[in-house]
Amino acid sequence: MCPISRRCSYTPVKPWLRGQEPLYNELVTRRLPWARDIDALGTLAFRVAAFAYVAFGLLDWETTATALARGGREGNALAAHVVEHFGVAALLAFKGLVVALIIAVLVVLPRRLAVWVTLTFTLSVALAVVSNIQALVRLG
Hints:
This protein is mainly alpha-helical. It has five helices and two strands.
């Protein structure tokens, strides 16, 4: 049986479920709905992937801000609207909010799926950074 924690709880055995008198010292382990088996390797992989996603998000903002300063434009229509009306600092807040929201959703997914989805997002942002760097080279 597992100890009392967020992953499981103890409930006394119901006599009508067992068909006999309850043993008051006997307890049944019941899994809580949000309990998941998270191994150390899966948690480490998710943390590394999430860190890479945040790092590439910051690089995306930095390269976008540099390109905007050199006369480039934002390719994302919603982000372009944020830059146009509120400035580059608001773009950082906008991108940070999007990254935080995505990671908050990924945390509740099964760990293996969360790692793969996070790596997919990381790859897409890394490609955006490469595209931004190419735009910076063209802008001179």
